[in-house]
Amino acid sequence: MDVFRLRRLWATLAVYETGSALKAANLMHMSQPAVTGAVSACEADLGTALFDRTSRGMSPTRAGDIWCPRIAAAADHLRDAERALQHWKTRTRMPIQRLVTDSQLRALSAVIETGSFSQAARQLGISQPSVQRAARDLETLCGVTLWRRHGARIEPTIEARTLARYGDLCFAEITQAHEAVREIQGLMEGTLRIGALPLARSQWLPQALAATLTQFPDARVTILDGPYNEQLTALLHGRIDFVLGALRPTPDADIEQEAVFNDPYVILVRAGHPLAPGFNSATDKLTPAELGGLSWILPRGGTPGRTNFEQFMASKGQPSPRQVVECASLVATRELLMRTDHAAVLSAQQVETEVASGTLKIMGPPLTGSARAIGIATRRRFVPTHIQDFFLQAVRAAGNRN
Fold first, then answer.
1. Range 108-142 burial, b when 16+ CB lie within 10 A, else e
2. What percent of the chain stands above pLDDT 90?
3. H/E run at residue 325
4. Rounded Cα distance, 90 and 140, in Å
5. Angle at CA 398, nearest 5°, toward 175 and 216?
6. Which residues of 272-299 are buried (b: 16+ CB within 10 A; e: fewer)?
7. What pTM was estimated for this model as a whole?
8. Of 142, 122, 140, which Cα lies nearest the Cα of 131?
């Protein structure tokens, strides 16, 4: 993670907003030399000038016009934290955004992530007393209880988790700002942090990613899989920037969704399944009795795929099956299909290659009403870098081919 001192960033932002180091110094309650030093330190860290100095003041360079609005967005996340904490009737209304330090926020996030002060210290590479002191100072600054002890175990309060989330988003925005400036310096090595739900992993995401890496071979890519709720948490904390897959009807209020294409579920069996010979996938349908007699490999309960399947079975007068293997892994599902007489409910796109090669067979038309909106989930107010924007365009183009 890039390390930029928050107070330096806010001083630089004040210069951007006021047009002079003197006015910024009055706004920040700092001396003018301190403000000038903060700007120079940021410029040294970035390796480029953020302002042109003239007798009339300081005007932003191209890099300044890219850097400073993103730093303003980072500051907004801490103001959101301040408003959230005030909701819990804090003992103080001190300006958290101005006074909190990067060390305090990093310590808070590390303790919540690791579950202890000692492990947080190891993760951050500092002493345990330093982590504890940062946590205590932050608690005093915010005027709320951030920790509760249960014997030797500490439990973060909801206030702590809320503050940590906004702190994580602040740092994510700063990283975005750094990468955006590096792009105009010709350094196209930014990050793509992608959450991939099951459907996205087979063809859609790889197609878009291959196109992006062809254009930007130095881009750094991280792909997170796992349950939707885990990916949603990562997205809300800024640990990933997109989630690709089936859209949810009621996402978090801080999440925006964009539908790219629709994809239905189909019933699949291995080519050598007893019901497969002579079955015409384009015209035939499984009877209710045949459906009721099958053993199934299904998505986990509560997922859109499982809910749709249960609705489909109910429409055929069949109860939810008892012989079920719950599996979220496409690889495991395909292997189990090939080795047993189970049937599976999967996205048509996920098994396009296996159906074309004749190893798996679709048993009838798509499940009635199973076409789901597949698309992109991002954070509200998220502004992509050039590389991220190229990737999103590639995602849309790959989806439109499906």
1. bbbbbebeebeebbebbebeeeebbebbebbbebb
2. 70
3. strand 324-326
4. 10
5. 40
6. ebebeeebebeeeebeeeebeebebbbb
7. 0.83
8. 122
Q: How far is CA 24 from the centre of its chain?
A: 35
C-alpha–C-alpha distance, residues 85 and 143, integer Å:
9
Confidence of residue 91 (pLDDT cuts 50, 70, 90): low
* Cα Dmax for the chain: 86
The backbone torsions φ and ψ at residue 374, rounded to the nearest 5 degrees and listed phi first, read -110, 135
Angle, vertex CA 50, rays to CA 46 and CA 53, nearest 5: 135
Q: What are phi and psi of 3, to 5 degrees?
A: -110, 110
Alpha carbon distance 399, 381 (integer Å): 23
Which residues have a Cβ under 8 Å from the Cβ of 96 and sit 6 or more positions away? 78, 81, 82, 85, 141, 142
Tokens matching residue 29? 């309650």
As to burial, measured by CB atoms within 10 angstroms (0-12 exposed, 13-18 middle, 19+ buried), residue 107 is: buried
pLDDT tens column, 298-335: 988 888 788 889 999 999 999 988 889 999 888 899 99
In this prediction, residues 341-346 reach a mean pLDDT of: 94
What's phi and psi for 329, nearest 5 deg?
-95, 120
Strand order of the β-sheet with 343-347 is 324-326, 296-298, 343-347, 265-270, 360-362
Question: Domains in the chain and their CATH numbers?
Answer: 6-166 (1.10.10.10), 188-262+374-400 (3.40.190.10), 265-370 (3.40.190.290)
Please give the average per-residue pLDDT across 22-34, as a whole number.
Answer: 94
Question: Which tokens hold the place of 236?
Answer: 């809300």
Distances (CA, A) of 325 to 172, 228, 337: 39, 19, 11
Q: What does DSSP say about strands 296-298 and 343-347: parallel, antiparallel, or unpaired?
A: parallel
Q: Which of 76, 83, 73 has its CA nearest to residue 142?
A: 83
